[in-house]
Amino acid sequence: MAKEEEKCVCGGPGVGEGGKKRVIFPCAGASKTGQMTNHARVRLAMEGYGIMACTAGIPIRAPATMEKVEKGEELVAIDRCPVACARKVLEQQNLKVGQHVIVTSLGIKKTGELIPKEEEIEQVVEAVWRGVGA
C-alpha cells in the first residue's frame, strides 16, 4: 500500500482589501510578542485580510506553502522583534516581502510570558490593516 501524501489543509490565497491576494507569515517566537504574531495572523485571516502560511515551510520549500506564495500577490511578515526572523526566512529564499510589521516597534514589550493580551493583539492587527511596514 502506498503511503498517503500529507497535504496542507489551510486553503488557498484569500483576497484582502484592495483585491490583493496576501499571504501572512508570523515569527511565532518563544515570547509573548512571538505568540502575538500568530494570534494576529489568525485574526487577519478571519477578517479577510489574507491567508495564513507556514513560515517553517519556506526554507524546506514545502509544496503547499510554495503554492500559496506563487498565487499570492503580497507577502506579509509579522515579526516579534528587530531580529526579523520571518522576514529573513522569506528573503533568504529570494521572496519579496511587501509588508513587514515588527511588534516591538509598536511599543509592545517582549517578555517571557506566553499569553498575549487581547488589546495588544488588536494593536498588531490594526497596524497591519493600516499598512504599517508596507
Structure characterization notes:
With 134 residues, this protein is of the alpha/beta class. It has a single domain (17-130), classed as Rossmann fold. The chain is built from 4 helices and 4 strands, in the order βαβαβαβα. A 4-stranded parallel β-sheet has the order 2-1-3-4, sandwiched between helices. β3 (74-79), α3 and β4 (97-102) form a beta-alpha-beta unit. α1 crosses α4.
What's a quick, concise take on this entry?
The chain has helices at 32-46, 63-71, 85-92, 118-130; strands at 22-26, 51-52, 74-79, 97-102.
List strands and helices in order, with pairings:
Layout: E1 22-26, H1 32-46, E2 51-52, H2 63-71, E3 74-79, H3 85-92, E4 97-102, H4 118-130
Parallel strand pairs: 1-2, 1-3, 3-4
Helix pairs in contact: 1-4
List descriptors.
134 residues; alpha/beta; Rossmann fold; 4-stranded parallel sheet; 34% helix; globular; disordered N terminus
Low-confidence stretches: 1-12
Indicate the structural class.
alpha/beta
What fraction of residues sit in β-strands? Answer: 5-15%
Which fold name fills CATH's third level, the topology?
A: Rossmann fold
Strand order of the largest sheet: 2-1-3-4
* Overall number of domains: 1
The CATH class name reads: Alpha Beta
Distance between the termini: 49 Å
